[in-house]
User: Fold this.
Amino acid sequence: MATTAPKPTPADIITDAIIDRLEAGVRPWVKPWQPGLGGRPLRITGEPYRGINCFWLWLVADCAGYNSRTWMTYKQAQALGGQVRAGERSQIAIFYKSYSKSAPSTVAGAPADELRRVLRSYAVFNADQIDGLSDRFRPTPLRVVSPIDQLPERATRFVDALPATLHIRGDRAYYDRVADSITMPATEQFSSRAYWASTLAHEAGHWTGHPDRLDRQFGKRFGDDAYAFEELCAEMTSALLGADLELPTAHLDDHAAYIDSWLRVLKADSRALMTAAAKAEAAASFLLRATGLGPVAAVDEPIREAA
Assistant:
C-alpha cells in the first residue's frame, strides 16, 4: 500500500524556496536598499518582523512584485474594513509556541518541567493583495536619495559608535578573531561611503561572534562547513542592518564555494536556515544596542494571530 508523503513543515517550505533561489544564483537577502523603499517587513501594528520571517517575506514580496511592507491575517484585514481580493494566495509567517513538558528528575525522583519550543505558522497577506485599506499601509513615495558619498544619519551614527577595534589599511576587509579587530580599506577604495559602511557591517557581524560577546559556534552539527556558515550569518546580519540603517547590500561578493557549502547544509537540515537567521538577528540586535541605536523590537509573533 502506497504511503502518503509527509506534509512539508514551515521550515521545509521556507528552506526549499531559499534553496531554489540560491541554485538560481540569487541570494534573497541581498537588496539595493533605497531610502523610503527598503526596510524590514512589518506586522499590522507597524512592528518589524524579525529573523527568518524577515528573509522569507522579502523573498515572497520580491517574487510577487509587492511594494507594501505590511502583512496581516485575513481577519485583521476584515477588522480594518479591507477585503482580500478573490484568487489571492496567502503566505506563511512563523512563530515559536513555548510549552512545558514534565521530564524525569534526577532529584529524589520528582518530575521537572522542561521548556520546549515548537515551530508553528499562520497565513498572512500583503497589503497589496487587499482592497479597502487606508493609505497608511501603502508604500510612501521615495524620498530624494542622498548623494552617493553621504551616509544616512543612522548609518553615520552606527559607524561612529561601533566599539570594535578598527584598522584602516591595505586592500582587504576582514575580521581577525585572534587579534579581535576589524581591518578595512580606506573609503576611497569603495564606489561609495555607503558600500564601505555596509562592508563594515558585514565584518562587524563576524565581530559579534567572539567568545566575549555572542560566542557564536556551530560545532559538529555543521562540520567542515562551519566557516562558510559563519559567512552566511555575517551576510544575513549585514542584510538586516542594511534594512535598519538604509545601507545597500548588493555589493556583497558571490563566493561560489560558500554558496555550495550553504546548499549542502540547507539540503541536509531544514532547521539550519532557522539557526542562521536567528543568529544573524541576535548579531544585528547586539550591534544596534552596542552603537546606541537600540535593537529591533524583540516581539515574538502573538499566538492569537494564528487564528
